[in-house]
Amino acid sequence: MVTLRHFTEGDAGALREELYSGMTEDELCRLIADWNGLDYRGRYFEMLAIMENGELAGTVSLYHHSESAVSLGPEVLPRYRRRGIGKAAMLLAMEKARERGYRLVLQQVRSGNEASIALHKSLGFETDGYGYRNKKGDEVFLFLKLLDPEQAKK
């Protein structure tokens, strides 16, 4: 079963092993404290642990773009991929975004990331299929999803 939760200092060791090998546990504890502050540069930001049967399987972030739009940033650890964990985590993160009052999820997906493109399509995201350049210079596709499609009909 996939769940989401906030990180704790007890996760620093696992994060160091899995994602942040170049950081000390003390640095990771400070990073976790920052994440749990729910703010990045004055905007809502939330980083959550993706848990599968009590084990850290990845991370997912929520980031405020506007009063109605949020983006989600899932990262599933390699050994947990292709098991539906990313999709389950995205569904949980979208529910969290809906509860926070967001109406739209706006995603940038690198044009070569076939797994993420397939994931977003399977979740009902729409795209115009046009490649844009992000701040890093990567070609990305924009994917959009209304969190409550009934709102669009009103």
Describe this protein's structure.
The mean pLDDT is 91. The longest helix is centred in the middle third of the chain and has 15 residues, at 85-99. Helix 1 crosses helix 2. Strands 1, 2, 3, 4, 5, 6, 7 and 8 form an 8-stranded mixed beta sheet that branches. The protein is built from 5 helices and 8 strands, in the order βααββββαβαββα. It has 154 residues and is of the alpha+beta class. It has a single domain, classed as Gcn5-related N-acetyltransferase (GNAT) (Aminopeptidase).
Q: What would a concise description of this structure say?
A:
This protein has five helices and eight strands, in the order βααββββαβαββα. With 154 residues, it is an alpha+beta fold. It has helices spanning 12-18, 25-35, 85-99, 114-122, 149-152, and strands at 2-6, 39-40, 43-52, 55-64, 69-76, 104-110, 132-133, 139-146.
How is the secondary structure organized here?
Blueprint: E1 2-6, H1 12-18, H2 25-35, E2 39-40, E3 43-52, E4 55-64, E5 69-76, H3 85-99, E6 104-110, H4 114-122, E7 132-133, E8 139-146, H5 149-152
Parallel strand pairs: 5-6
Antiparallel strand pairs: 1-3, 2-3, 3-4, 4-5, 6-8, 7-8
Helix pairs in contact: 1-2
